[in-house]
Specification:
single chain; alpha+beta; 4-stranded mixed β-sheet
């Protein structure tokens, strides 16, 4: 039986693209640049490292792909705008028949991910579990202490090894960021206002879990969360809530379902792409002259913004 809040013309979309393993050729990178809006192309070109430029490019292409393929809007007609907080959205006059269509992207670690919904608020975040770049896990947690409640810290520190604690830390982080991105509030939100009770404690790669619960200001909220491990290091969390025009959100039904992320190839990513700007050979020169990552990269959790 179809779920009551979904439009029959579109189902949930969950896509992941392994941008960390992507080594675009000159022809590929220039073609990608032709398939995004000029202002987005400029933003991507300003990244200092190719890792970040590739992730941002993949995010833009994932957005255009889902709009073109699921809403049946020609690639060249898609117009993306940004909220005051920087969150991308489809211009309202482009698809008036889909007033509640929502999408969100995130990129961190080795993947860029997208979640899209026909009739729900949606936010997605991905976090890669890794060791702190410098200092101990204990020191890292001390620095990050104010981002979590005491109950959440108990859950994190109850795990046996340092690695297991870090893994639980990043799982909580992805959940919090998915909610922040869904409501579009940016960096000013106090993360201790939201508290998660994760379940199950251990997850398996490739399965979707929907039992985790959230409290906002000590009130149990009618939001549901999907969690998935793309691989042993990458946690993905998707936050789902009602929209202004669709307050109903049957979280109990939602907890019985969940959508797997499909990992796309480059060919999948570009299957519907159409050039919308002329080729700019200098764009490859700029990209090719950059380092992949900083020479001495430190791994730490930082508040993401809704500009992904």
């Amino acid at each position: 039986m179809p779920l009551p809040w979904r439009l029959l013309t579109m189902e949930s979309v969950r896509w992941a693209f392994p941008c960390g393993r992507w080594s675009p050729s000159r022809a590929d990178w220039l073609f990608c640049a032709r398939c995004v809006q000029p202002e987005e192309k400029q933003r991507i070109g300003q990244f200092m490292f190719t890792r970040d430029a590739k992730a941002a490019m993949a995010g833009r292409l994932l957005i255009r792909k889902v709009i073109a393929e699921k809403l049946k809007i020609p690639w060249s007609k898609i117009v993306l705008e940004r909220t005051a907080k920087g969150k991308p959205f489809l211009a309202s006059d482009i698809a008036p028949q889909h007033p509640n269509f929502n999408f969100n992207v995130s990129h961190q670690g080795d993947y860029a991910v997208l979640a899209a919904e026909p009739d729900l608020q949606v936010g997605v975040d991905i976090m890669k579990t890794d060791l702190p770049g410098s200092g101990s896990t204990e020191e890292f947690f001390r620095i990050m202490h104010r981002q979590f409640t005491e109950r959440e810290w108990h859950s994190i520190k109850s795990m046996g090894s340092d690695w297991a604690q870090l893994d639980m830390f990043y799982r909580h982080w992805a959940l919090k960021e998915s909610f922040i991105k869904a409501i579009g509030v940016g960096l000013g939100f106090n993360l201790q206002r939201i508290e998660f009770e994760v379940f199950p404690i251990n997850m398996e790669v490739g399965k979707v879990y929907t039992q985790t619960r959230m409290w906002l200001d000590d009130e149990n909220e009618d939001w549901s969360f999907e969690e998935m491990l793309l691989d042993e290091k990458h946690h993905v969390a998707v936050a789902l809530g009602g929209t202004d025009t669709n307050k109903a959100h049957d979280s109990e039904d939602r907890k019985m379902s969940g959508s797997l992320f499909t990992v796309l190839t480059y060919e999948d990513l570009m299957a519907s792409a159409v050039p919308i700007t002329p080729e700019d050979p200098n764009y490859w020169d700029n990209f090719h002259s950059k380092q992949e990552v900083p020479c001495r990269q430190s791994v730490k959790a930082e508040r993401t913004t809704v500009t992904s």
